[in-house]
Design goal:
- This protein is α+β, with helices and mostly antiparallel strands and about 100 residues long.
- The chain has a single domain, classed as Roll (SH3 type barrels).
- The protein has 1 helix and 8 strands; from the N terminus they run H-E-E-E-E-E-E-E-E.
- A 6-stranded antiparallel sheet has the order 4-3-2-1-5-8, with no helix packed on it. Strands 6-7 form a two-stranded antiparallel ribbon.
């Protein structure tokens, strides 16, 4: 009976910690800053020399010409470098003018 109580207590503690940590998670948000200063956050799904495509939660899919963009910041690490020693370096890809 004592073992059952310990297991039940452990399950309750882990559940409480999991529920407490849940609001701390966030969804991915890439950022596109337009030349005029407007900021659009969403999920960048495509980039090339002439256009950036971003999926906005409310506005949907938008194709923005590069000529109207000041900078693009990708929220998830999309660059990974593995060093000879085995260490890994991850970083975000940023694009900006000047």
């Amino acid at each position: 009976m004592v073992r059952f109580r310990r297991v039940l207590l452990l399950i309750l503690i882990l559940g409480a910690v999991g529920i407490w940590l849940l609001p701390a998670t966030r969804s991915r948000a890439d950022t596109v800053v337009l030349i005029g200063g407007d900021i659009i956050e969403g999920l960048v799904t495509k980039q090339n020399k002439s256009v950036v495509v971003i999926e906005h939660e409310d506005l949907g899919r938008m194709e923005i010409p590069r000529s109207r963009i000041e900078s693009v910041t990708i929220d998830t690490p999309d660059v990974e470098i593995v060093l000879i020693e085995g260490d890994t370096i991850q970083g975000n890809a940023n694009w900006g003018r000047g």
